[in-house]
Design a protein that fits this description.
Number of helices: 2
Shape: elongated
Radius of gyration: 31 Å
Largest sheet: 4 strands, antiparallel
Strand order of the largest sheet: 2-1-4-3
Strand content: 15-25%
Length: 120
């Protein structure tokens, strides 16, 4: 027999013979289906009295991590990601010496103009 403030192991404090759904009045809900680019359906539940403006157009799909939209025929497209660039690819994109010198000269010219206007 349990005595004092200790509960019986495995039981919840306040749990009775009724399930949680039988206690009180639950708000009515409406199920909204969303589809991601892979064809997976995601169902979200919203309060029935919620205005349409407050129901989001897109949600994130938990199975794929992609955005899911309400239009089954035209789901949001998968984001295009750039492939990994190697160091050599970045080296090839570097500017030539002439371009770098021109950029430096332009930056110095802008600084000189700002100093000239600030000193006046």
């Amino acid at each position: 027999m349990a005595s004092g403030g200790s509960a019986i192991r495995g039981s919840r404090v306040g749990a009775g013979p009724m399930g949680e759904q039988d206690r009180g009045v639950q708000a009515e809900r409406v199920a909204i289906s969303y589809w991601d680019a892979m064809g997976n359906e995601v169902v979200r539940y919203f309060a029935a009295n919620l205005p349409d403006e407050e129901i989001p157009e897109t949600v994130d799909s938990p199975s794929t991590g992609l955005p899911a939209g309400r239009d089954k025929e035209n789901p949001p497209q998968v984001a295009k990601t750039e492939p990994y660039k190697t160091h050599l690819a970045y080296v090839k994109e570097r500017r030539t010496e002439e371009e770098a010198a021109q950029l430096l000269e332009d930056a110095l010219q802008q600084l000189r103009q700002r100093r000239g206007t600030a000193a006046k």
